[in-house]
Design goal:
The complex is a heterodimer of chains A (about 220) and B (about 240). Chain A contains eight helices and no strands. Chain A is mainly α and about 220 residues long. Chain A has a domain at about 20-170: Orthogonal Bundle (MetI-like fold), CATH 1.10.3720.10. The longest helix of chain A is centred in the first third of the chain and has 39 residues, at about 5-45. Chain B has one domain (about 5-210): MetI-like fold. Chain B is about 75% helix and about 0% strand. Chain B is flat. The chains are: A mainly alpha (about 220), B mainly alpha (about 240). At the A-B interface, helix 3, helix 4, helix 6, helix 7 and helix 8 of A face helix 2, helix 3, helix 6, helix 7 and helix 8 of B.
Chain lengths: ~220, ~240
């Protein structure tokens, strides 16, 4: 085992660049998955099989196929269809879309966990459908699902390295580039490995604190 | 798509299935070893098992694959065949997720069962083998089924290292045909079909195991727990 601290020092500037990209992907990807997941969850409750069936099928398909291949699909096929996006944008959309099919299930569980009495009370008070959702159901449902959503953010963090395959220079991409230039593999790969463990551990601590505040 | 290219894709399917099979075996072995170790009465055993879980669950599967391919060879002076390197990286990572499932299911067995074992002066190993595991294993099947699908999706990562699995064959076909919509659609469909068949297989297994302990399989509409249920799943 030959460990060279100077290689670590050389890698660090690249590491910070990569970390920034990873975090940017994570934040925007999470936002997309939170919003899109809620949209899917609401659409599968529309009382028409012409809506629920296609939405259910598409999300099931996306959830059961590899994110990596989906990223390739977006990266290589969208330009053929005349839609050219940057690698980073493609990656963020891909990861957000993929995880929205997971968050959808989380929201769905949260909505179903709202007691039936809440629905009945909303009906009894003659609340319009919109108010029922925005003022009664969703505030209770979302509060319950925050910890589960947080778990998916941590999962997503660990899937961001896949964006390297479509040329995004996030942490792993930076490490690979550095390795190819300097022929040092051990140090950069170990540094980012430790960084991932530290990040996901910190995130889970944060999540635990959040969970204590939100879930009674 | 010419027949030659289809042959390439079929070879990719075969590699993916092999990799899935071996890494699922390794992941199962790791899950049970680490999961049972986390219920051990000695704190040091629990600590080591918990440390393993945190480390391997904390890092990304793709980073782990890179590590096994690039850092292990110079560090220890041996090189692994790509298939075994992929199996090792995937098996260890997904085994860490699986160990949480095993621990959760063991913890969910009625405490009276364990106490009954103590009262009948079973040894800890007998309690585990004859009382706890037979009741816990059927409960593990649905989460393991989800994990297996995640593992199938994870096998595509080895294509980044140039291993000729299904995702890699897709890239070759794209380069050959200079056209990507068709091949990637086929690829996604093939993965979906494999995932569907695996889900069916696991449902069959669940039914059989639950019949063995006199329970009905849970209804199909039940929602899967997040695989990465760091906190949510264990509650």
């Amino acid at each position: 085992m030959n460990w060279d601290w100077s290689a670590v020092a050389d890698f660090m500037p690249h590491f910070w660049d990569g970390l920034l990209v990873t975090l940017r992907v994570l934040v925007i990807g999470s936002l997309i998955s939170f919003v899109l997941g809620l949209v899917w969850a609401l659409l599968v409750r529309v009382p028409s099989r012409w809506v629920t069936w296609p939405v259910g099928a598409v999300t099931e398909f996306v959830r059961n196929t590899p994110l990596l291949v989906q990223l390739f699909f977006l990266f290589y096929v969208l330009p053929e269809w005349g839609l050219t996006l940057s690698a980073l944008t493609t990656g963020v959309i891909g990861i957000g879309l993929h995880y929205s099919t997971y968050t959808m299930q989380v929201y769905r569980a949260g909505i179903e966990a709202v007691p039936a009495g809440q629905w009945e009370a909303a009906t009894a008070l003659n609340l319009p459908l919109r108010r029922t959702w925005t003022a009664v159901i969703l505030p209770q449902a979302i509060r319950r699902v925050v910890p589960a959503l947080g778990n998916y953010v941590i999962s997503m963090l660990k899937d961001t390295p896949m964006l390297m395959a479509i040329t995004v220079l996030e942490m792993l991409g930076e490490a690979r580039l550095f390795s190819q230039e300097s022929f040092r593999f051990t140090e950069p790969l170990t540094v980012i490995g430790v960084a991932f463990i530290a990040l996901s551990y910190l995130a889970s601590l944060l999540l635990r604190a959040l969970e204590r505040r939100l879930v009674p | 798509m010419t027949p030659g290219l289809w042959e390439l894709v079929l070879k990719g399917v075969w590699t993916t299935l092999q990799l899935l099979f071996f890494s699922a075996l390794l992941a199962t072995a790791v899950s049970f070893t680490v999961g049972v170790a986390r219920t051990h009465r000695l704190w040091i055993v629990r600590f080591v098992a918990g440390f393993y879980t945190e480390v391997f669950r904390g890092t990304s599967a793709l980073v782990m694959i890179f590590w096994v391919f690039f850092v292990l060879p110079p560090a220890f002076g041996w090189q692994l065949v790509p298939m075994w390197a992929g199996t090792l990286a995937l098996g260890l990572t997904y085994g860490a997720y699986g160990s949480e499932i095993v621990r959760g299911a063991l913890g969910a067995v009625d405490p009276a069962q364990r106490e009954g074992g103590i009262a009948l002066s079973f040894t800890p190993w007998q309690r585990m083998r004859l009382i706890l595991l037979p009741q816990a294993v059927p409960e593990m099947v649905p989460p393991f089924s989800n994990l297996l699908i995640e593992l199938l999706k994870g096998t595509s990562l080895v294509s980044v290292m140039g291993m000729g699995d299904l995702a890699f064959s897709g890239n070759l076909v794209r380069l050959a045909l200079q056209e990507s919509a068709g091949i990637y659609t086929y690829l996604l469909l093939i993965y979906f079909v494999i995932a569907f068949l695996l889900t069916r297989l696991m449902r069959g297994l669940e039914k059989r195991l639950k019949a063995g302990v006199g329970k009905a399989a849970r209804p199909r509409t039940a929602l899967p727990e997040p695989v990465d249920a760091t906190l949510g799943g264990a509650r």
